[in-house]
Fold this protein.
Amino acid sequence: IYYKLNIKLSKEKAQDACSEAARRDSPILIELYKSGVLGKKSEENLFDLISCFNELPRESAAGGLLTVWHNMGYGKYVHRNKLDAGKLQILLLLAKNEDNPLALLSRLDELREIILAHRNSSEVSLTLSTIHSSKGLEYDNVYLLDVLDGILPFKAEGELEKDEMRLFQEERRLFYVGVTRARHGLNLFSVAGEASSFVSEAEKLLRGTAMGEKSAPASEMAKTHLVASELNPGDRVKHKFFGPGLVTAIEGSHISVRFDESGETKTFLSGAAPMKKE
């Protein structure tokens, strides 16, 4: 983790410090500091890093996270490499229920095991899942959390760099996967006062309104939002986001389509999907 925390160090020197620490049964950072192989600035950063590590056990769980993010330089690494800074807010929410950083780590390990095991009792009324893990599944009611700019999507569309548009489109498709897991009820959770590009898009789609304009006529909506009664298995359709595909099944108010480009079959609620016949 040294290159993520403001320590300029070659891989070879890091390995030497690890070997020396193992030989002396001493902390790696202490051996690195004693080695004298660092430049002046990196040595100062390492001294601050050691001080922060020494203070971490006495911090609250949330305080420990903020120390790693701000004082130890990890936040700068995340922003410099354009990673998902929104995950800090999720960790801070989890940290509220833990006494210290070690307790938070134990809780994260517990949650990881729950997700990996993915065993749901038939008596359980609530299933916690990532959107990726829910592909191909359906639930009576779906609750999508943290649908806001900075988390999902990772950045507002108007703030995107050219090379970020592809990732934004992938997150839009992922959001749509989550939305279409719902059989009967869909609940989108955003944050008061925070912008949410995808929630706005969903409201526009469902209400047929945009930026204060009048609702689109029903005849216009019908052209781009097919209902189950208008389709038969074997029909060709074109989805606004996923492109052309083949209707493979119609079950009640649900339409299943296998898309040409991805080969994936997706299920949509009748009248809600932006697609038309080819």
